[in-house]
Every structure is written in C-alpha cells, then in structure tokens.
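agent> fetching stored inputs for the (2S)-2,3-dihydroxy-3-methylbutanoic acid docking request
agent> found them:
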Amino acid sequence: MTELKGALIGCGFFAINQMHAWNDVSGAGIVAICDRDPERLKIVGDQFGIDRRYGDAEALFADGGFDFVDIATTVQSHRTLVEMAARNKVPAICQKPFAKTLSDAKAMVEACRNAGIPLMVHENFRWQTPIQAVRKALETDTIGTPFWGRFSFRSAYDVFSGQPYLAEGERFIIEDLGIHTLDIARYILGDVRSLTARTKRVNPRIKGEDVATILLDHENGATSVVDVSYATRLSREPFPETLIELDGSEGTIRLTQGYGLEITNAKGTTTTDVSPKLLSWASRPWHNIQESVYAIQQHWVDQLERGAEHSTSGSDNLKTFALVEAAYDSAARGQTIDVGAML
Ligand code: NAD
Ligand code: 89V
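agent> prediction call returned; pasting tokens
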C-alpha cells in the first residue's frame, strides 16, 4: 500500500497523542510539522524524528510534498488554516472545536466542498471503544426502540494544568468538553430537533461555565439529557469517562464507571467489560481518549482510500457544532432553541 504523507500544524499538548497515533496508523505517516512556537517545534520534531519543520503554515504549503494536513492548533486559527488547505487543494483534518462560530464552520465546509477536498473534524470521542460498544448494542436491537437517554461527564479533574487556555475563555465546558458529549448523543440517538440548556460557573478561578445541563429532543422522538461538569468531586474520579443510560421499549443499556456495559432485556442482564486498550504510548486515565485518537486517524486513511465520507466530516460536524451554539443561546435567553432552523 502507498503510504500517505501528512503534515501536522500545531505541536502543542494534544498533538503529542496525534503524532504517536500517526506512528501506529497503517497507510500514513507525518513528513513535516509546523508551529509558530520554535520551542514546541523542536520538542515534537526531536521526539518524533521529523526534519522538515516550519514556523509558518504558508511556507509549509508553499513547499508542499504531502497528501493531507492535520490541524492540531487551538480554535482561533482553524478557519484560516482550513481555508489555506482548501486553496492548496490539500485534504484536511481539523481539531475540535471546529470553529469559533457556526457561520465560520459553514464557510469552512463550503471552502473545502468548492475545492473538492475531504474535510474531517477530529471529533474522536465517538471512536472510544465503550461508545462504539453502546452503538453496536443498540444496532443489534438488544433494547428495542430507545425513547430516553442520558450522556453524562462529571468530574473534578484538573484539566487546566495541561490546557491553561481552558481557564481563560468566556466559554468553557460546552465548547471544550460538552461538544464531545453532544456529538456522542447525536451518534447514539440521532440528530436533534430542539434543545434547552442551563449553565453555571462554580470554580471562581476560571472565566467560563464549568457546569451545563442540556435537554435534547431528537428527531426520532427520543429525549435525552447531556450533563457535564468539572465541578463534581466524587469518591472515585471518573475522568475521562462518559457514562450512558439508555431506556428502550424492550430493555435498557447502562455504560457504567469503570467501562462496564450492562444490557437488560427479557432474557435477563449481561455485563461486559468494554475497557479501551492501553496502547504502548498511552497512560491512564487518558488511554480511553488516546485509543480513540488512533481510531479516528486510521478511519481518516481508510475512508480516503475508499473515497468515502468520514464519520465526522465537516458537514456532519456542523450538526454537532449547532448544538454547542444552541446551548449557549438557550442558557443566555432561557429559551428552547429550534436547532433545525440553524442549519
Ligand atoms: P496547545 O495550545 O497546547 O497547542 C496548540 C499549538 O498550536 C501551540 O504550540 C501553538 O503555538 C500552535 N499554533 C497556534 N496557532 C498556530 C498557527 N496559526 N500556526 C502554527 N502553529 C500554531 O493546545 P492543545 O491543548 O494541544 O489543543 C489543541 C486543540 O486540540 C484544541 O482545539 C483543543 O480543543 C483540542 N483538543 C482536543 C482533544 C480531543 O480529545 N479531541 C483533547 C485536547 C485538546
Ligand atoms: O477532549 C478535550 O477536548 C479535552 C478534555 C478531555 C480535557 O476536555 O480538552
């Protein structure tokens, strides 16, 4: 198989996981890296043995010699860099949050569509082994038609030491973490018609909200609750597990803390261990996320080879991003938001 050549822009905290995962992915490898911070460029270049190093993305694209770009910068630069990829006709992966606003995100999808290049958002949480297991259980009709769900992420883990920018933005938990949980809700129960949200800031040392409770009306008639918190101290810290409850016409599914999958129906209850693998370069408790980084990057290559759309394509992610914007709007106005009208 011909190995696809990739370039990675943004050599920060999370890019280390992406670089490790690219080493494991079959069919692709990273040949060039870019970061405007020379220190980060050196750290990542030396750690992963990459000689082609750029401080400026325009210079990277001008030199070319790669088949896709993996944009791992923070959100401020996503639109500029995705549009740069489109101008250069280079297929692009863009980290979440896809954009600063839904109108930026729509423009980015449009630019890539017009350029005829694939665009995938690195929305990796749906690729976690336990989340895939829940989806499979639902697809194999173990609980009939789902009518209710809960997607919950409650933690007191200190995310600010690794990602200090998370304490500084006007928006925090919905934009950074809830975006994943909302995507999982869509992935499991389908697209959303309308949404109502409430938010709170409990930690006085950060600027944005660290608690959100969101009620979703799915197009298939199911109702779900997405609840996220970084202000919840528990006896056993669950970070970074998403816990799921689903009630269906014929039974229930529970994804419990410690990666247990419990399915109850007329046949009784089965409990399965759906723990993620601990990859050679991974470390607990991040291994669940790290394995999903490998999975989404392998999916990128596999779908490029097949010429097929990616699960989290730019246009798919508009529907998740709309939920983020709708949640902030709902919390600010105290109203239910018609999500369909935003798309
Ligand atoms: P970071 O600040 O540690 O790293 C970003 C890097 O990008 C920095 O080194 C910065 O110098 C560089 N950069 C920024 N703009 C640039 C530009 N225009 N050209 C070249 N380099 C540029 O941030 P991080 O914590 O690694 O987060 C990066 C992204 O990854 C964020 O969007 C974040 O939300 C996302 N993230 C995703 C997950 C996940 O599971 N999907 C987890 C953590 C972070
Ligand atoms: O996945 C993320 O985007 C991370 C974290 C899990 C820490 O919220 O920022």
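agent> quick read of the result: The two ends are 39 Å apart (CA to CA).
agent> awaiting further instructions
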